[in-house]
Design goal:
The protein is of the alpha+beta class. It has two domains: 92 residues; 436 residues, Porin (Beta Barrel), CATH 2.40.160. Helices cover 17% and strands 47% of the residues. The strands form five sheets. The chain has a 16-stranded antiparallel beta barrel with strand order 2-4-5-6-7-8-9-13-14-15-16-19-20-23-24-27. Strands 11-12 form a two-stranded antiparallel sheet. The longest helix has 67 residues. The protein is elongated and about 155 Å long.
């Protein structure tokens, strides 16, 4: 810029000089006049030089102003860029928190969905959206030969998460989640369908970043439930099906607990949880012939419970310890469960110990496209933690509690075909070992081969039919046909085939009743559909 201005100025000066020389071309008439003329030209040249110097000074001044302006422009550009970055960050923060409500210094996040669902079963269970696998009827029951269809909105769900930061290190939260699968005595499908809300989860948490400690107290998924990452609430990974009872082989419970978890760099986790105990019993059809009749192991429900129910007698919480790892590829966990079963007979109280161990893993076989998960559990007295709800314990002839050995496993694939479509295929099984007794020819316990299964395939026939295993294969999809500023709306469909096989019992062979000759099966096909709207 400076060289261009200087060149213009010099050219202008030279042009003026040339003009004056050409404008006065008269020849010299005398030496005197020539001298006078040369003196005038010299004066004029000096004036032009002075004028040229003035022009050069002006050029320098202009260049200095131009440089200063350039600096100002650069500074202004940097300032504008910084402001733009701040605006973008603020906009991102606004978008991130746009789904939260602020009240008295805490953030409230609403969640849940509205559901319209249908159920078809090839055999009548008398169940809503949550199937009752252990009660699947054998063919001796009339309703096993009849189909079942229902429509329901009861799995609709509402939730609220309240969060507040005491300081950059300490974070407090409270969470409540409910649906409408409660079934009070006044709730029915005759006219008003006035089903009542029920608690799913209600708990508080406190998280300390620097120490990596996490406290949870309240009702939540049991610590033994599979997590998708780490050991933190609200990231439990349930199978993606519609059936609210999930799939046989899936280990879970939702119950009151106090949980403490430690993490190391959010990669490795160790947690312990004390959880509300409850025991499910199997009483032999011949229990009245056992030598011990006066015993206590459950009680009629009292204040705060439905009087139609009973409660087991427990005095020690269930204890769950879990270790989880997120090393960079996949999620892995192992856990242990300890339980105490409590009853009274022969004039004294007795504790019987049970429990087991389990594992889980989630692997992205194809990143963001195909996920595989597997989980399982084995132990004795663990039936209440499986979706099939097989019994925890039975009774020995002297009245003692005898835990039933069980194992359960679940595996499945979820294919994220595109951002709007997920397709899944799962299979699971729960299997019991028999816990049988013989007291002077009286068959007791669970899975006794002397139990009468002779009429399991005959309508109205006799059938004890203790379940040996229950397995299910299921497939389905979720199609998100709307995702936008107004939430998400999706449609899903699920098909499942379930079989329950009984322990072998008495059956007829050539007209003769023989122990272990009858091992009946109950089979059921189910089909579910679901429309769901997630407004939040």
């Amino acid at each position: 810029m400076r060289s261009k201005l200087l060149a213009v100025a010099i050219a202008a000066g030279l042009g003026v000089t040339s003009f004056h020389v050409v404008a006065d071309p008269a020849p010299a008439q005398s030496t005197k006049s020539s001298q006078a003329q040369a003196s005038a030209q010299a004066t004029e040249i000096e004036a032009l030089k002075a004028q040229l110097q003035a022009l050069q000074a002006k050029v320098i001044e202009l260049e200095q102003r131009t440089d200063a302006q350039s600096d100002i422009n650069v500074s202004t550009g940097q300032a504008v860029e910084q402001v733009q970055k701040q605006v973008a960050a603020t906009d991102a923060q606004v978008k991130k928190s746009s789904d939260k409500l602020s009240y008295k210094g805490v953030n409230i996040t609403l969640g849940g969905f509205l559901a319209a669902e249908s159920i078809y079963r090839s055999a009548q269970e008398g169940a809503d959206i949550a199937s009752n696998y252990s009660a699947m009827p054998y063919r001796n029951v009339q309703t096993a030969h009849m189909n079942e269809f229902r429509m329901t909105a009861r799995q609709s769900r509402l939730s609220a998460l309240v969060q507040g930061d005491v300081n950059p290190d300490t974070h407090l939260a409270g969470y409540i989640e409910m649906d409408f699968l409660g079934g009070a005595q006044t709730a029915n499908s005759n006219e008003s369908n006035s089903f009542n809300p029920r608690i799913r989860n209600v708990y508080l948490t406190s998280d300390w970043d620097n120490s990596g400690l996490h406290l949870l107290a309240g009702q939540n998924w049991s610590l033994l439930t599979l997590n998708s990452k780490g050991i933190m609430p609200r990231n439990e990974l349930t199978p993606p099906q519609i059936d609210a009872q999930y799939i046989p082989g899936f280990t879970w419970a939702r119950q009151a607990q106090i949980r403490l978890v430690k993490d190391w760099d959010k990669k490795y986790w160790l947690g312990i949880s004390l959880e509300n105990p409850q025991t499910t019993f199997y009483s032999s059809p011949n229990q009245a012939k056992a030598p011990v009749q006066q015993q206590a192991y459950n009680i009629a429900a009292g204040s705060g419970f439905d009087s139609a129910n009973t409660l087991s007698l427990n005095h020690i919480p269930d204890v769950v310890v879990k270790f989880a790892a997120d090393p960079g590829y996949g999620h892995y966990e192992v856990f242990g469960l300890g339980r105490a079963f409590y009853n009274r007979y022969n004039g004294s109280n007795h504790d019987t110990w049970g429990g087991g161990w389990g594992f889980g893993a989630i692997l992205p076989l194809v990143d963001k496209v195909l996920d595989w998960q597997i989980s399982g559990m084995e132990g004795k007295g663990i039936g209440r933690y499986g979706s099939a709800q097989l019994s925890d314990v039975t009774f020995s002839p002297n009245g003692g509690i005898s835990p039933i050995k069980e194992n359960m496993i679940l595996t499945g694939l979820t294919w994220h075909a595109n951002p709007d479509l997920d397709i899944y295929l799962f299979g699971g099984r729960e299997a019991d070992s028999k816990k049988d007794f013989d007291y002077n020819g009286v068959a007791l316990g669970y899975g006794n081969p002397a139990y009468n299964n002779s009429g399991c395939d005959v309508v109205g026939g006799t059938c004890v039919g203790n379940a040996k295993n229950i397995w299910q294969g299921t497939a389905g999809f979720w199609w998100k046909f709307y995702q936008g500023k107004f939430g998400k709306m999706q449609f899903g469909a699920q098909y499942s085939h379930t079989e329950k096989e009984a322990f072998a019992g008495q059956g007829f062979v050539n007209g003769v009743l023989v122990n272990g000759a009858a091992s009946p099966k109950a089979k059921e096909d189910m089909f579910f559909t679901s429309f769901r709207y997630y407004p939040f």
